[in-house]
Amino acid sequence: MGRKLLLDKVGIVGIRSYDVYRENGGYSSVEKVLKTMSPDDVTNEVKKSGLRGRGGAGFPTGMKWGFLAKPEGVPRYLVCNADESEPGTFKDRYLMEHIPHLLIEGLIVSSYAVGSNRTYIYIRGEFGWIVDILEQAIAEAKNNGWLGKNILGSGFDCEIYVHPGAGAYICGEETALLESLEGKRGNPRIKPPFPAVKGLYGCPTVVNNVETLSTVVPIINMGGDEYAKYGTGKSTGTKLISACGNINKPGVYEIEMNISVEEFIYNDEYCGGIANGKRLKACVPGGSSVPVLPANLLLKTAKGETRMMTYESLSDGGFLTGSMLGSGGFIVYDEDQCIVRNTYSFSRFYRHESCGQCSPCREGTFWMEKILWNLEHGKGKMKDIDLLWSVQGNIEGNTICPLGDAAAWPVAAAIRHFRDEFEWHVTHPEEAQRRNYGLAGYAEPLKAGV
Amino acid sequence: MIKFSEEKLKQVEKIIARYPEGKQKSALLPVLHLAQQEFGGWLSPETMDYVASLLGLLTIEVYEVATFYSMYNLKPVGKYVFEVCQTGPCITRGSDDIIKYIGERLGIKPGETTPDGLFTLKTAECLGACGYAPMMQMGKGFKEHLTKEKVDEIIEECRRSAAINN
Q: Which pLDDT does position A448 carry in this prediction?
């Protein structure tokens, strides 16, 4: 069994309630920091831990906290990003549903570190029942003296509020999230200024993901140096992976970042292999935005090394032969899945979720969806594949926020690795209208595609 | 004339109090959720105007938000709204068949409401339940691991509870 730091207590009956959580050592990190540490000490432990943002970008959390401007007399805010909407990702939801006090505890410690007296959890509106779970956990924490004024006599005041969104993927982008929290449309802001300088209500703000903030708890309990001994290289600690698609055991797994992709897919402790005795065709390892990889490049890098479940290994080879760990949304395709169809579905998603501010994204996602619809429905032409390639290339890097890139990358990777499948849709228009393609050959080793 | 009950008005005050003084615009999204729930499952122009007056906002500030977010219904919907996820991970687990099946069972296409006003079928983009696919949102909760049998049961359950409430 791999070591766990976040989900280790999830099996305990009643852990969702305050009493059981507390009996099992809950809130000890709050006692520790309020009684023995300064806010900067907390930030330093997080820096030493090597923790990287678990929302997808993988930016070092301690460094992000270090950037926070601290002008006199101006409030600072901590905002928890619980707008989990990246296709393939459902880990934050799992954490909040099963062990909500871990997030609340992490939020109190992190609020102390950044100096936030009013902390918000921005949760996607569709998670209505989780709003209730969190509000109950907050009320319990408050009744037991972990929130409110002068917590544990430390002089530190903190309140946590839950703010539901209303259905918009773009609000997972931190500046769009802040706009939405201010009661506006979720249009991302131009950066700089970064939220660390000008965030919520124009005040210095830190926005962190649910899993990131929960991980602060074990870091404080065990110390940053000890935490950094978990995992490998710059991928320290554990990571929640939400596995879905054609596998035997879809679900949320906490892995120590030292196992191989092959072990994650085939070991019974995790995905338990491909469902229905089929073969592995491809995988999107980090949420819909990251490049899809064919089986051969998924299990081994282009250099022939074993591909590991780490930030570095999954991105080895760049976008030509690698992908990204991203949010940990691990989508597995068996030999019957159609890459064109799935790419079309992702393009439809990004077209639907584009906020419409930037022309390359607003128009580009529309055209990508249209071209892919034609190809998928047997109405495509060979030159459409090149047109699609050109459109995605004109979106990437030309927009205010990364949604444009996120829409372009999966299309680019699908064409790069599965061009013949796109061509097959053009040459076999009638068969293409059947639901799946089923090119089982992709389960066999291929030479590295370009 | 649309108006929240005293109890709901207290709830609105509590929502506004979550935000710093003078920042009551932040309460807009949660108050719109409450209004949609209270006033027939959708946001009519009259409802939006009322919310604007409650929060001291221009009506356009409410309209531009209500039209941006997918959870706000801008037309009337059925008593039960089935929002079935149609994004990639759900496709790999057969969401296409489930959407088709629900449509056949209810005799409507996505975006439509049954003539008796009981059901609305909508397709949705990723709802964050990929490991429990195919799935749909219904009210405040999710219905997961959908099969044709499970869909039948859900429809029956809705019909039964609607008959009791009438």
A: 38
